[in-house]
User: What shape does this take?
Amino acid sequence: MARPLATGTGPTGIITPLPAITLVLGGARSGKSRFAETLLDTHPGRRTYLATAEIHDAEMAARVQLHRDRRDPDWRLVEEPLALPETLVAETEKGAAVLVDCLTLWLSNVMLAAREVEAASVALEAALGQCGGPVILVANEVGLGIVPDNKLARDFRDHAGRLNQRMAARADHVVFIAAGLPLTLKTWR
Assistant: This one.
């Protein structure tokens, strides 16, 4: 299990009030990304927004722009749709904090690239143990609705559920967001 970074005892000596790994779950437009961003506002070091989305149309471009406009200009932006484990380790060097938005889009990218989901999940979990700064993972909870009517959608829903469970077990702090309100599922203090 990941260990919390208590104030003044981070692996690089940077004081941070954040645990090593936080998972923020919620449905579409629940406020999970905004909540995750406010958590990182307490980090005194570099903050990196690691975006996994790929922009293929104007509607997605508009969604991405809303996220960008909301953040302070001092955020570093890294766009990486597939190489999430390696990028996380590199970006958290020297205590930098990283917000991954989002695991669910990363999972979609992995599946669409015909990569092995289990191997990718294992690599992500291993990378989390190598991070030198706090990580906040944002993910959609897609299992609260109806059972999808096609195999691909059912497979995606099942993989997302298993990935969320795996990350929740690894995380020090887990929060579920509904209608913009946080519900703590697992706390590190």
Notes: Helices lie at 32-40, 58-70, 84-91, 103-112, 117-128, 151-170. Residues 29 and 179 are 8 Å apart (CA to CA).
